[in-house]
Amino acid sequence: MTPSVRLQEMIRVIRSARTQGEERGIIQRECADIRSQFRQGDNGERSHSLAKLLYVHMLGYPAHFGQMECVRLIASPRYSEKRIGYLGAMMLLDEKQDASLLITNSIKNDLSHSSQYVQSLALCTLACMGSAEMCRDLAPEIERLLRASHSYIKKKATLCAVHIIRKVPELAELFTPSARTLLSEKNHGVLHGAVVLITELCERNPDTLVQFRKAVPELVQIMKGLVTSSYSPEHNVAGISDPFLQVRILRLLRILGHNNDTASDAMNDLLAQVATNTDSSKTAGSAVLYETVLTIMDINSESGLRVLAVNILGRFLLNNDRNIRYISMTSLQKIVQTDHNAVQRHRGTIVDCLKDQDTSVKRRTNGRVITVIHSALFHLQSCTGTVTCPCAGGDVRDETVPNLIQLITTASELHCYTVHKLYRALIKDIAQQSLVQVACWCIGEYGDLLLKGECEEIEPVQVTEDDILDALETVLQSHMSSPATRGFALTATMKLSTRITDNVDRIRSIVSIYGSCIDLELQQRAVEYNALFKKYDHMRYRSAVLERMPVMDKNSPGHTNGDTSGEIKEPDTSKPKPVEAGLLSEPASQVCDLLDLLGGTDTPLQPSPAPTSTPTTTSSADLLNLLGGLEITPGEKFSLYRKMYMFGIITIKKKKKKKRNSKNVTVTLIASNSTQNDITNFTLQAAVPKSVQLQMKAPSGNVIPAHGLGQVTQTVLLNNPNKASLPCFRFVQLSFLLN
Length: 739
Fold this sequence. Notes:
Layout: H1 7-15, H2 20-39, H3 46-58, H4 67-74, H5 79-92, H6 104-111, H7 116-129, H8 132-145, H9 151-167, H10 172-181, H11 188-204, H12 209-212, H13 216-228, E1 236-237, E2 240-241, H14 243-257, H15 261-277, H16 283-298, H17 303-316, H18 322-335, H19 340-344, H20 347-352, H21 359-380, H22 400-410, H23 415-428, H24 433-452, H25 465-477, H26 483-495, H27 504-513, H28 520-534, H29 541-545, H30 581-584, E3 596-601, E4 619-625, E5 637-641, E6 650-654, E7 664-672, E8 679-687, E9 693-696, E10 711-719, E11 731-738
Antiparallel strand pairs: 1-2, 3-5, 4-11, 5-6, 6-7, 7-10, 8-11, 9-10
């Protein structure tokens, strides 16, 4: 590329570069040529060279060596060179550069230049990069130009005055008298600058509010002229006359009318006119309406006007633009405390926003819905009868506890907030049994989140391990706690043994106490939990058994948190239950719970296909299940199935057909293994009611071959001397090692 190419040619060559390295080579050669042009002095090419350097600067390459050339060009008498010099100063200089002080005198001289275009260059540069020292030196010149005859100069001087006030707030008083007179201008640019200047003065110095509140009638007249004016191509944007100026005036009116009845009364009619006559189908109209709503809500406006503002926000919620829905929801959150009844009319639309795909809109909606729920609960406290079912206390239905637990498990982002709130409710009052049960369940599952004390939604409170255990012991020992509530508390205490580190011995002591409890359900739980401490603690089964519950299916039979009174559903034997892929990758120390009892068919359930991969380390599993509701009927077969390592079948069947109330019953239990590894050390234990005598024969073996290649059978004799109807097995325990 030749040294004398123009800017357009240089841009073309740079854009045609195929690689980054080729582009850097072109830039380096051109920068060397620019330096040589600067060293040659006044040869008529300096402005062209600086223009090329500014383009290089825009591409991100170093251009600091052109700063002094900017100073020289600004001092040039030629307008073409001044223009490039001032442009370079705005791009290459800032208030931190020492070279910026060198152009102060040139700017002062140009502010008094006979040409308005030269004056505008100086004003733009000062407003862009003027330092505090430059602003102090040139402020009188700017105040003089605010009274200039040309609207072009007034507009730029006004914006320059705004920059000076932001840099040197104590100079605000210098521009206060001139700012009021600018409101009489007809030029929209000057009016826009004047409104911005007055807004800045009012925000920086509240003492000026009294003076500028006298200008409210003038601002109202200007705004009315914009609303009712005919079409003007110069200022029309999407059918709205100069929406930028309208928004600025509304913001200034909001400041002037805040906590002032006189100013608010003067603008009430105007705000009603703007709210009813502005078209919200376009973004420009929505912007004006939104500023109108904010102004109505921030001044001492009439009640009817506030209802109109809330209705506008309600219409915004139906807008297709997600940004408009978001700002509407944000505004409703701010005003719901002061205009609750008006917001309540739109609660249906607000709730519908929970279905919005935009997460930011959902988050804003959640806060608004919580407010609605609080109001509804406050109202329900004064109701009686069945209407109070949504409230806590004794009127809660039985299914509320498992339903609420199911909802909590699905909302993972609210686990920390939920456990903190429920813990506080628990230590405050334990009279509401349903609430206590949910609180105990959450503390057992998410006690580690409670100990961390980190929750963004509420004020953090430091909770110790002793505090949590004290609360659970209070529930266990309280006379108000039902047996079911104590069961929740005991299970929560046991689960905390894997979530805390310093009080495991205290938990072991609490559990052992209830091993002799008069309540059989609580006693059984305590005995089983105590076994985890003694028999299996060294094999790390406890952490696997007591890990967090997965997300619950709302219709799953295990939806009652361990309650065994639920109905056992019959399976569809035509389709074997699929093995969840996620379970195949569980660690080998995972303990398998046999929770599903599938029976009621003459055809045994077929084993599931062997998993593609199985852990190779030795593992042991303790399968515990309370088989409630299973009555033995002659000739029936019952299958036990679990979607984990024990992919086998336990079949219970009668050998001989006898009457239902027969004295002796023989039951054969058959176990098979569909995994890829053999199961060893297989044992079976069972328990029956006291009215039935149980005799267990020796099993055929204790090893179950893999891939269903063999079975282990064991015969159980049941003696029914009273000839009563045979009830279920009250307890079945299986244990084995998975190689």
